[in-house]
Amino acid sequence: GSNVLRMSSGIQIKPKTAVQKSKTSSPLPCSPEPAIKLQPKPSDKLNPKTINPFSVHSRPPSTFAAIYAKGGIPCRLVHGSVKHRLQWECLPQTVPFDPLLVTLAEGLRETKHPYTFVSKEGFKELLMVEDAAEKTIPLLPRLVPVLKATLAHSDDEVFGRGLDALVQLSAVVGPSLNDHLKHLLTNLSRRLMEKKFREKVTVVLQKLEQHGGKVS
Question: Which residue ranges does UniProt annotate as crossing the membrane (predicted)?
């Protein structure tokens, strides 16, 4: 029987080893790393603890990417058949806004999946909790510079996320944002001159005026 397993080149076909077989089974969530590293599955990319932002093939990680990779963002991306959604480890209304809301705002400048979705949706869902206004207003001095950098970004999608976040923030904090608008209007007016963003920026300015009242 062993002669059948030998090829003319003299190479013997060996049965699968235990290590090879283990590649077909998923590791336990909290099991220690095996001695031989297995190739990551595509689904591993959705788990923040398996993303390595310090890979030699990538640039130094951003603040958001580093925090996300360490499991510091209390929500994760869940793929749905129609659309993606976030699954929170605890109820959003129980999560401290400081510093999570600022961290999610910084994540709006990300350009890679899943950071783009997690930061945008996480920022939106935090602002939807019942007492979001009183939790957010004290953070405005830190949030506005982050949004200003987002609105100054050269990537069109990043800029678009910044616009959406600004409208969401304005709807929550209302006139409290008025004193900070001067830091944001320069970047908005610059994009207002671009035909592809003219209509959207105009709508955003109208929303800021609506939420900010006569003073705005």
Answer: none
Residue 95 lies in a domain: yes
User: Which CATH number goes with the domain that contains 107?
Assistant: 1.25.10.10
**pTM for the full model?**
0.71
Using DSSP, state whether 80 is helix, strand or coil.
coil
**Structural domain contains residue 26:** no
Tally of domains within the chain: 1
**Cβ atoms of residues 195 and 162 within 8 Å:** no
If we measure between CA atoms, which residue out of 62, 74, 76, 69 comes closest to residue 101?
74
What is the bridge-based pairing of β-strands 85-88 and 75-78?
antiparallel
**Stronger pLDDT, 78 or 20, i.e. the higher one:** 78
Name the β-bridge partners of 77.
Answer: 86
Question: Is residue 39 assigned to a domain?
Answer: no
Q: What percent of the chain has pLDDT over 70?
A: 72
pLDDT of residue 201: 96
User: Can you list the alpha helix ranges (DSSP code H) found in 137-194?
Assistant: 140-151, 156-173, 185-192
Q: What is the rounded CA–CA span in Å between residue 18 and residue 35? A: 13
